[in-house]
Amino acid sequence: MDDEEARTRLLDAAEELFYRHGIQAVGMDRIRTASGVPLKRLYRLFPAKESLVTAYLERRDRQWLTSLRTAALAPAEPRARVLAVFDWLAGWFAEPDFRGCAFLNAYGELGAAAPEIVRVHKAELHALLAGLTSDPALADRLLILTEGATTVAALAPGPEPARRAREIAELLLPAE
């Protein structure tokens, strides 16, 4: 196994374990066991748990935002693009392994010690929403709807919080 494969296996294991059980509850030995990567190589690739946490969140950020952006930009009409965000959220919330927002979960566990990618991710989400509308205040409201629906769904998984947030978004959007 080369370093790239080892890195991928470590990040796959870290994502599954950190997201399911929490960052503080999962030690490096558990990640080593789940990934099958020797401890010496793990620490060569990720010298500290913090570096693995950051890499996990950076990879999740890229994948999550790419998927959401693709869904949001698929419709031609601006109004439909905004509503597509909530349709995408409904699908995500209905996934069997949904455990809420990995970035808010990390911040909840680590507080001020959370990696900067947590703040960057939220800024990128806001920028994506702002790109779907020409109204900055509307983008702020959409972010609050998105985050609120995600938090509610974390407590009661399923698509319903996204559907309700979509209904509110429809009321906020200008008529076509």
In short:
Helices cover 76% and strands 0% of the residues. It has 176 residues and is mostly helical.
Order of helical and strand elements: HHHHHHHHH
Compute the separation of the termini in Å. 55 Å
Rg is 18 Å
Major beta sheet summary = none
**Poorly predicted runs:** none
Q: What overall geometry do the principal axes of the alpha carbons give?
A: elongated
Strand content: under 5%
| Derived structural class | mainly alpha
Can you describe this structure?
There is one protein chain. With 176 residues, this protein is mainly alpha-helical. It has nine helices and no strands. The protein has helices at residues 3-21, 28-35, 39-45, 49-73, 78-93, 102-110, 117-132, 136-155, 160-172.
Tell me the layout of helices and strands.
Elements: H1 3-21, H2 28-35, H3 39-45, H4 49-73, H5 78-93, H6 102-110, H7 117-132, H8 136-155, H9 160-172
Helix pairs in contact: 1-2, 1-4, 4-5, 4-7, 5-8, 5-9, 6-7, 7-8, 8-9
